Amino acid sequence: MSDLATASYLAQADNETRLNKTLRPPFDVVHRFSAQSIIMTTIAAILLFVFLSPILLVVAVSFGEKIEGASWVWAFDPSNYARVFVGIGWPDEITLLYAYKLGYTLAYAVLGSLIAIAFAFPFTYFLSQCSRPVQAAWLVFILASLSMSEVFIVMGWDIMLSNRSGLPALFKATGVTEWLKETGWLAVLKDWGLANPRNVKFKTSQMATVLTMAYLVWPYAVILLYAPLSRIDRSMIEAARTMGAGSFTVMRTVIVPVVRIPVMGTLLLLFVYLLGAYVTVTYFAEPAHQTLPVSIYEAIRGATLNAPFGAAQAVVLLSTAGVFIFASLWLSRLAEKRGR
Amino acid sequence: MTQKFKTRRAGDLTRRSILKGAAGTAVLAAGSSLLAMPAIAQARSIKIGSYGGYFEDSFKKFVYPAFTEATGITVESVTQPNSSDWLVTMQQAAASGTVPADVSLYGKDTMIKATRIGEMLKPLDASKIPGVTNLDAEFLYEGPDGLVGVGSMAWFNAMVINPNEVTPAPTSWKEFWENPAYEGSLGISKKIDGRLLDITAKTFFDGAETLMTEDGIVAVLDKVAELKPHVALWWSAESQMEQAMKNEDVIAGSYYLDVANIMASDGFPIKPLFPVEGNPIGYGSWCLSPLSEKTGEAYEFMAFSSDPATQALMSRNIGTAPLVNRELTDLTDEEFAFVSGSPIITPAYESYLDNETFIKERWDAMLAGA
After folding, report:
1. Pick the residue with more confidence: A2 or A64?
2. pLDDT tens digits for range B112-162
3. How many CB pairs below 8 A link A and B?
4. Cβ of A129: how many Cβ atoms within 10 Å?
5. pLDDT, position A30
6. Rounded distance, CA B67 to CA B163, Å?
């Protein structure tokens, strides 16, 4: 920097200082401002502590070392992560047991949330066209149904699918079971795991698992979709209609494009919610098709008391969920750009 | 302006929450002092844990009142979800210096595990527990520091069938593997300590001995895998199997002898059997927390529990098998057959602990077919 430039810079800086002095706010404002920033910083610190410390604790536990036949101790043992990916026998042999479990976790969550939205979308669309009192009644009913816990819902489905009180009993009473036996369809269903030698059976099955999960999040889907669907400008639909578009074309070219971002958001939320489903999976999925949360629970609370391995699985599940969410956000942003 | 408003609101909130907090603390303090008063006045009490549900209810209804009548010590019943989960709870409680239960009920494997973890169980002085000699020596568990567990009762994981659907009744566990009528029809415990490994080892191999080596465990697991097409329900909670038997979602399987007998006497279609290979036995022990200040009361309770009369009381009302010689009790043949039987399959406890991670992962992989 040349001398001249330095001088002009210094002069400018001096000017600025003077300007600052004259413009400096009165003492109490500064005081209030700093008091507020202290409060904000404290709140932020508390929030960070409350939200981050459990996660950090899980990460710390995931490196613990398991003592065979006893509990575990703090350590820095990355083998828990290795076990999640390749199993305990590595490097002699590899098992993809936990990868399968992760696969089922993701598959159930994706299918469950897609089915929930597939049913919730048309329902909510027609609901948003109903009169105000009808809408209010439905929304109150749906909000109230949210108070039912997963345990109650699973209990209800369990009864519905039971041999003596549910669908199989109905099949038997109406003679469908006999017909299935005579036509040989029961043997086919048996091969699919949906029958025993006496009657059809719907639990345990992946179908029951996914349907119960979809049912579990369906009210959330309706509530989340209600606002964007009821805000759609009716004149656009009417305009499309007057130009000769059929219902399907209107849905495809007007309604879906307008609400695709909220639908994507809803899908992500339901997906994340279903990643943690536990009761549904333990009741309706056979062990071969169970998910990582069940395995996590068994590691931590089960007979082995292997909290570090449970924590390692939890970290892997969390990271996978994070990757999925970021990927879908990125994809939707990409699609948005293309759309323009 | 907005700044001011925000600041004031924040101030308001703080004041209100402080007031609320203060009021809450006052109520709590008043409450706890009220609670504390009768405790001081009332001479002796003890907190005892047992598995929640029907089991704990029977203790509260039949055993604890008899104990209070005999000793004047009142019992506060504590619900344990089961044995191993409760160990986690007690471990966390010990870290924070609290005692959720003075005396806990642990299965043998959990008890061994607790001694391996260390400082979970208080060593007991057998000379201060009169009547403990009634118990068979194998039910007094000694850790490195001496006696830590006094046997309380035994139970069986019995073979059960739905007598309306299964005729004739099976005489061997082998039939579960071999009879195609069981296809998609059995209810079996999903837990590694659900005893299917012990049953399989006894039925097709050399029993507990086979489970002592990794090769033996793999061979037994391969045999268990052959049973998979016949299993409709791998239950993880007791209530799942109960419902499945009641609903006829399963027609046979393995289940607790005591609960099966109670269900049968309530009229449900379930019948426990003792096949030629026998049924696996398990037993619970009373263990004292090292942080408990109720050692004296605990000794009196353990002495009461070891009494043949109490053992018979438990057999009659809870359906558990006595741990004292049957001749010492006044149980009739019929009553004894209701709670016990033979032959007995003794689980390979040590192997489950020494090969814990190996068995768990191989078991899960077998179930998953991975």
Report:
1. A64
2. 989 988 889 999 999 999 888 889 888 999 988 899 999 999 999 999 999
3. 120
4. 14
5. 53
6. 39
- A40: tokens are 């904000």
Nearest-by-Cβ selection for A197 from B113, B181, B354: B181
The CA distance from B41 to B37, in Å, is 6
Residue whose C-alpha is closest to residue A80's, from A288, A242, A314, A265? A314
C-beta separation of A15 from A7 below 8 A:
no
Six token digits for residue B336: 């004894």
* The token pair that represents A259 in the structure block: 């609400």
Q: Which of B357, B358, B359 to mutate to test the interface with A (most CBs of A within 10 A)?
A: B357
pLDDT digits (tens, 9 = 90+) for A126-179: 999 899 999 999 999 999 988 888 889 998 998 899 888 888 999 989 999 999
The distance of B142 to chain A (nearest Cα, Å) reads 16
Q: Which structural domains are found in chain A, ordered by start?
A: 3-61 (no CATH), 97-161+202-339 (1.10.3720.10)
Predicted interface score ipTM higher than 0.90: no
Rounded Cα distance between A272 and A220, Å, is: 12
Instruction: Return the higher-pLDDT residue of A301 and A52.
Output: A52
Mark the ranges of chain B whose per-residue pLDDT is less than 50.
Answer: 1-41
Q: Are B123 and B145 in contact (CB under 8 A)?
A: yes
Q: Are B362 and B218 in contact (CB under 8 A)?
A: yes
Helix (H), strand (E) at residue B103:
strand B103-107
Please name every residue paired with B103 in a beta bridge, in sequence order, or none if there are none.
B48, B288
- In the predicted model, what is the mean pLDDT of chain B? 86
On chain A, the residues whose CB falls within 8 A of the CB of B365 are 87, 95, 97
Cβ of A70 within 8 Å of Cβ of B113? The answer is yes
- Domains within chain B, CATH numbers bracketed: 45-154+282-339 (3.40.190.10), 156-281+344-368 (3.40.190.10)
Rounded to the nearest angstrom, the minimum Cα separation between A338 and chain B is: 41
Distance from CA of B86 to the nearest CA of A (A): 9
For A21, residues 6+ apart whose C-beta sits below 8 A from its C-beta are none
